[in-house]
Amino acid sequence: MPSSCEKLSSLPANFNSRLMSSSLRNCQLYLTQYGNAPNPSASACFPTSTAANPVDLPAATSTIYSVYSCLKSSGSVLCSFNADCQTKTYEVGAVPSPTPSIGVDLLYDGGFESGTYGNWSVPQSPNVPTELSTQNPHTGGWGYHAKFANINGGSISLTRVILGIEPGRQYQFKAWVRHDNPSGSVTTFYLYAYPLVGASTPAAEASLGSLPANTWTQKTITFTATSSWFQLQLSAGGQVSGNTGSAGGVDNIWIDDVTLTRLN
């Protein structure tokens, strides 16, 4: 159980409803942090309203302990395999075929060949127009494209949550990237795996200034999973080059063929 929820069992007795509400909120926020899929049985543990009488200390105490007890009995507070917490079932006597996973790409459509973002979450920035484009794919017919217009506030990100991960196993996250103006406004490209500490592109390798124009390069991070899920993120950032809005600082970036594989 996450520490913010485990704390519910160690709060002092007879706390007021304000402390009750903030404590429950902190626990509940964890369940959706990084796009997690909460286990429905855990979500049902929380009251629909915590607006209890501030002076009714026994009621607030009882609510806190009731939620904690419910969470403990719900099993995992997060889904491990899909957003509905469903697991596969088999007929009695049937033996499921093992699914190969070592060295197999675990990302569906990491090359955007469906012409859609699929499971990627792509926040839109008013300063950086983005699209899926048939222009300059690394392989296949599609890729991700963003245009940095050399103005302040330029950044883009693509994120997706991966479930069914085996803790203790080593994983490798890769993506191909290119841009057309080494002296332009796109300065960095990072790969992240949250909430793992240190699972990101080193700063020295994230710089795009030394990458020749219109040349594809592959960025890679390798890390060990610590839970049954993590959130992957691709992120590019920039700063104004020369005068704000000047054509000499405009830079286009393409991302394609994103993969995730288990190494052991």
Give me the secondary-structure category. alpha+beta
Q: Which architecture name of the largest domain does CATH use?
A: Sandwich
Task: Going across the biggest sheet, name each strand in turn.
Answer: 1-2-8-4-6
Which blocks of ≥5 consecutive residues have pLDDT under 50?
A: none
Keywords: Hydrolase
InterPro entries: CenC_carb-bd (IPR003305), Galactose-bd-like_sf (IPR008979)
GO molecular function, one term: hydrolase activity, acting on glycosyl bonds
Domain CBM-cenC: 105-235
Describe the 3D structure.
The protein is α+β, with helices and mostly antiparallel strands and 264 residues long. The protein folds into two domains: 3-73, no CATH class; 130-262, Jelly Rolls (Sandwich), CATH 2.60.120.260. The chain has helices at residues 3-6, 17-30, 40-43, 57-73, 203-206; strands spanning 130-133, 143-148, 155-163, 170-179, 186-194, 217-224, 229-238, 251-262. The strands form two sheets. A five-stranded antiparallel sheet has the order 1-2-8-4-6, with no helix packed on it. The chain starts with a helix and ends with a strand. The relative contact order is 0.17. The model has no long low-confidence stretch (mean pLDDT 82).
Annotate the secondary structure layout.
Layout: H1 3-6, H2 17-30, H3 40-43, H4 57-73, E1 130-133, E2 143-148, E3 155-163, E4 170-179, E5 186-194, H5 203-206, E6 217-224, E7 229-238, E8 251-262
Antiparallel strand pairs: 1-2, 2-8, 3-7, 4-6, 4-8, 5-7
Helix pairs in contact: 2-4
Keywords: Hydrolase
GO molecular function: hydrolase activity, acting on glycosyl bonds
Organism: Podospora appendiculata
